[in-house]
Amino acid sequence: MAGVRAAGVFSRFANSKYSLLSGHASRSLSVSSSVAARTHVSYELKDDVAVIRLNDPTSKVNTLSVQMQAELTEVMGEVWSNGAVKSAVFISTKPGCFIAGADINMIQACKSSEEVTSLSREGQKMFEKIEKSPIPIVAAINGSCLGGGLEFAIACQYRVATKSRKTILGTPEVMLGLLPGAGGTQRLPKMVGLPGAFDMMLTGRNIRADKAKKMGLVHQLVDPLGPGLKPAEERTIEYLEEVAVGVAKGIANKKVSLTKEKGFMQKLQDTVMGLGPVRKQIYKTVSDKVQKQTKGLYPAPVKIIESIQAGVEQGGEAGYVAEATNFGKLAMTSESRALIGLYQGQVICKKNHYGTPEKEVKKLAILGAGLMGAGIAQVSVDKGLTTILKDTAVDGISRGEQQVYKGLNDKVKKKALTSFARDTILSNLSAQLDYSSFKSADMVIEAVFEDINIKHKVLKEVEAVIPPHCIFASNTSALPIKDIAAASKRPEKVIGMHYFSPVDKMQLLEIITTDKTSKDTTASAVSVGLKQGKIIIVVGDGPGFYTTRCLAPMLAEAVRVLQEGVGPKRLDALTTSFGFPVGAATLADEVGIDVAAHVAEDLGKAFGSRFGGGNVDVLKTMVEKGFKGRKSGKGCYIYGKGKKDKSVNPDAEEILKKYKLAAHPAISTDSDIQYRLVSRFVNEAVLCLQENILRNPVEGDIGAVFGLGFPPCLGGPFRFVDSFGAERLVGIMKRFEDIYGNQFTPCQLLLDHAKNPSKKFHK
Amino acid sequence: SWRFFFLSFRKIYTILKNSLLIIQTKSKKTLARPNVKNIVLVEGVRTPFLLSGTTYSDLMPHDLARAALQGLLHRTAIPKDVVDYIIYGTVIQEVKTSNVAREAALGAGFSDKIPSHTVTMACISSNQAMTSAVGLIAAGQCDAVVAGGVEFMSDVPIRHSRKMRKTMLSLNKAKTLGQRLSLLGSIRLAHLSPELPAVAEFSTSETMGHSADRLAAAFGVSRVEQDEFALRSHSLAKKAQDAGLLQDVISFKVPGRDIVSQDNGIRPSSMEQMAKLKPAFIKPHGTVTAANSSFLTDGASAVLIMSEEKALAMGYKPKAYLRDFVYVSQDPKDQLLLGPTYGTPKVLERAGLTMSDIDVFEFHEAFAGQIMANLKAMDSDWFAQTYMGRKSKVGTPPMDKFNLWGGSLSLGHPFGATGCRLVTTVAHRLQKEGGQYGLVAACAAGGQVSDTHVQHSLVVPAMIAFCTYAKHLYEL
After folding, report:
1. What's the CATH number where A48 sits?
2. A interface mutation test: which of B285, B334, B337, B341 has the most A CBs within 10 A?
3. pTM exceeds 0.95, yes or no
4. Which residues span the domain enclosing B169?
5. How close does chain B come to A127, measured CA to CA in Å?
6. What is the ipTM of this complex?
7. Could you tell me if A399 and A349 are in contact, meaning their C-beta atoms sit under 8 angstroms apart?
8. Would B182 be classed as within a structural domain?
């Protein structure tokens, strides 16, 4: 369910595939190892060019770890002192990765902002030496060149990059609540101009090689090669090196110029940017935009602007000092910790902890070609899964096929895909009305109407035609899987796979296992989810599982708040200013008022008065009048095509007036309303951990943020309890409990944490 | 899908008559197969191949094809009504003459009762025409088929943009003045930008030159190696031209211009001069230049293919048996131009021959880099094991048997016409050099088989899609 469109900084975080940080634990560096032979950096002379190769043998990616930096410094010392060397090339021998960033463990190991600042100063100095190198240095980039890796590359005199899809450049630090702390805020504006630099550093987005060339971030592109006398990637890196060596020689003997002829537009832009008032206006515009988007909840963008501004307006040294100081400050913020925690959690949730499935799923059948079913098909066909999309009506499959086509065609329009690739991908899809060829399906995911009888009916129909090894997965948002599995002849093959709408945008997949679900079935489901590009949490069975169960009490509270006379717009403002990417009223519209009513009723029955609050009849009345949310054009708001500003639905307001409740002044301040909403969410999340629905707090945080849009700056409900303080939260809840009763009764686990402040969910 | 074909050559008389050449008659086995009809190449001709935009520039494609057909009629003196069928290959089609085979046949004076059709398979279109002919004869449908190819790059169909076309088509249907005016009013500047025929792969949007440059880089082919090979091609072509070996070329009186009787793209240069050129596709570090690529060419070719029975009955002395052919295809992105490497061993295995049995090799030279890359691939155990599922490398053709009369780099490459040139050249070289088996490969399409217990047979493999080669094998 939860049709959340995460927005702003967060969605970019969620959609990015960068790996700024190595997922590995910090490597202990004994004295002996640093004395021993170099393991990360090696170099050889090709004529008068020093080819310096980077490869961290302990990790899948190169990072600027302590060891890497030490060896680099050592090698550069040797290169610079060798009179025979006229130029140098930096290249990574690791496939798909130049340098993926700084080593986050180095920053996390620091105890104070001063320590981090001095780390930053050291990085700045190292890169300054490279920038001022007496011989030209060419960075030969293949694969990810991110964060510190990019700062390293832009300190070099020349950059050659492969046009491979894997080659991405960017400064994703902002998504970890940090800033580029090794000269990035100072060099980038000079290289790509002020607007380009702001864009890169404030969004943290990945830039592909061809775009980087246009922006002036790299000088020259090299095509990736196909198979030759060696594997393609190996030969491509070799070719890149050959080209880079050629360029290095060319620069050294002045045949290749480092200054690019500027075009008219570039000159014009430079002239305009030379004007103080223009720059001032830019700073202001950018700051306003950042304020509007972050609601002041994220400190990193502000510090990035400050650092850039210091450098541009007060000169290099002031800029470097500002950058290092701000970097130190940011590293100590709770926001940065929360975002880093999410990043690390995401890495964990992108692994299969259940082993390799006995049989790989190659053919997937989906029942129901609605938004969900077609969405699941959309993320499957382009991963090479042969996909059947079955519905009961021609209209249904036609709409579903169109959705899959449109998803792919939009990528063609954005040039992320060729029309030829689109057609090839679509050939994996078969839309049909019958069960033909289900006999060769490896997995069936049902996305039919949320009614236990219909689910039982299709389960029986499917089990009559599928092979014995085939897994039956239910994409339900609230019905307990064991109830669905009750109709199955082979409950060990039944599992829940709860996708979030829109499936192609929302990264989370919640997998639900029952007592009977076999480990191999779980391994298969996780494997399919990972193939589909999902971040996966695996939770226990129960009404609403984890995500729906957390969201339901918050929405119940939102309905009560609305009944108490807080309008949808104010409710949205209160939730977004707390950090939710989507306001509570808009969220209800996105999820669907009918779905919300359904869930509220179901879970209300299962959990009793704890899930009360708002009157379910409000939702039911809205559904009766056809106000089902965005999909029907009307919900709390009225949605028109192309209209950017949605207006409040006056008829919905009428309904709310009919069910009006008196607000309690003692707990109705803006802040109280926010905590009423959030504390119910958080308490239910903690209760899920207490009841073993959740296996661990990491998955709880990931599920809440990636599935429901819990404020990323808080890092998820568990990290929120850790940083906010369980005792403080319990105190607030008790105030609400006095008036509203058990809906605000803190659960036992939360009370335990309140009693013992040393207890933390995250170490 | 690559197909190869074997031409089996009947050479006895010509060899004996040729007192200047001392030919060691080889005693290799025949490639004849029981219950398979012997199919022979009777004759092959072509117009001179000219750089686009030169003497042919005011013609139309069917004019060139017509000239080749008339040349063939003249050489063979075959009665026009004996031919059962005519097939032509072409790549960039002139819209007005989309079945160019039919227009050319009628214009060349063939009976209007002879059916004709046009095939297209990129650079091996005329290989496809030839193998289709072999198929018709083998199936007992025909006894005498004319196959050929034509390409005319001096004029190509340049279209209005899709938007403009849509507007113009709607204009046809508009009933009222108001509707027409509103349609005309909808025309924007963007409507006016024309659409050129793509020289790029549809599936990858990559141009041939770009692909060749990447291929050369993948196999580590240097700029010098490419320039050397291109220079070799031009020098050998010049020598062959001067020695009068290019007997397949017919003279052609171009209306309003002089008689053309020689290819005009053969220009041996020097390594120094070639080294001065800048890369044409991948800049600034690429290695494929204008000098080591084949150039845009106008030209047409034609061959007469018959069942052996019929040919002998009519008193012809066939030049070769067409024995076998194979078409193969690969990944259009990274292996676009590697067809010859894949096709050669396949057709050899079909014929039960090895590389050393072949006396004459004719490979289509799209780019020097592409030829060199194929030679390196054929010489690599790793490539054979990793990509071809073979135990060991294919092996390379010896250079003293390879494209000795020049190739597409120097003679020119009218896409649709090259295949027939390759096959005819193999036949002529086998005669001249006294070989028995010849093999043709092209990165594009087609090949065919025929066999007798006579002494020459020719394997003609050809390959598919913007990348393939035709190979022919002769049996002497």
Report:
1. 3.90.226.10
2. B285
3. no
4. 159-195
5. 28
6. 0.86
7. no
8. yes
